[in-house]
Amino acid sequence: MVLRNILESNEADAAVNRDFFTRKKIATVNMMSSPGSGKTELIGKTIDILSSELNVGVIEGDICTSMDSERLASRGIQVVQINTEPFGGDCHLEASMVKGAASLMDLGRLDLIFVENVGNLVCPAEFDLGVDSNVVVLSVTEGEDKPLKYPLMFRTCDLCILSKTDLLGVLDYNADTARMHVLKINPRIEIIELSAKTSSGMDGWISFLKNLVFIKKNSNCSRHTPAGE
Amino acid sequence: MVLRNILESNEADAAVNRDFFTRKKIATVNMMSSPGSGKTELIGKTIDILSSELNVGVIEGDICTSMDSERLASRGIQVVQINTEPFGGDCHLEASMVKGAASLMDLGRLDLIFVENVGNLVCPAEFDLGVDSNVVVLSVTEGEDKPLKYPLMFRTCDLCILSKTDLLGVLDYNADTARMHVLKINPRIEIIELSAKTSSGMDGWISFLKNLVFIKKNSNCSRHTPAGE
Predict the structure, then answer these.
(1) Mean pLDDT score of chain A
(2) Are B68 and B38 in contact (CB under 8 A)?
(3) Are B149 and A123 within 8 A, CB to CB?
């Protein structure tokens, strides 16, 4: 009952975010994963590639510390840190936090905002942030079975990135099995395999983002796949 | 307010578990980590080593699926699966779930029970299960910064296992930095580096467990480090 009220209140805030970012024509991507899947590294490398064409900002979610936002801000981009510790150490971001963070940014200068969620393969999937795309990053070191064991996350996302593929040669990992498990949970999800370290596979991800920005700039309708639906 | 009531109710159940396992003289270990850190693999290898000396059981926590419990049960040991999906897909185990699972086991034949928690580096640390030891498994693939970013987990545990050390040669990972971060959060925590794959470092872990079982068999007092304290 209580959880339901929290989710309903979050849903209302997410709708506000969705309208707001649509009016501002800023594409927004919610990056979710277990701790240590390489989200920050991937976002950093992505910004390096996109910086000549697009203005990218980051809303960085962590329980505590500002290490990740400092890593990203060193590129001269806009980064706003959300620490959930004052909110009871929340294990996820909520739409109201994203709204508050966005209000601190110079939005007129942005084409794309990454929201890097708290590292957690469970709870963030329950909270719609009102963004255009929910992306789950699953490191190949985590094994092939995770989509079956954490299905809500994979059901909620429209893109699954299988990251750290540079390690494939030293792991007992079957990429076909992993893909099969992802698609069993969500047959409509897109899958991209990449290594932020070697840049292998980054092209598909960059195309995905450019497409998202193009749609946002040229339409009044946003592409919704709210978390929790 | 509501969270506090849940935690207080859990604390009462944890106290019941603690008394119960002390009377039964069964050592209990709560294994926590991010998804994919290698908990199940480590528990399996540990049972293979200990099986000639100790009777080991497992309480296996997952949101859904019984893949991990099947992997472990194939060794002919007692395994009880807890799926949290009927509890709203809970992202952690609670003491009452452990109590219920233990009631399904033939406890007279057990020396040691592993509780494998849901893969999540945040929420499980908030829920005391009434066990003897809380152990966090942190894969070296997750990076050195996780103790600083998820401090409650490392504060709650009395042992940190740095796992998958067979991958050290191919990672940009500084083991000294990782150890320093773990000890910064919890100066009293024990640290063991190991690879379940190659068995390197397993000796220290096996000694830790044998010591726990010895203390439990020979004392009416349990070694408490409740989660959440």
Answers:
(1) 94
(2) no
(3) no
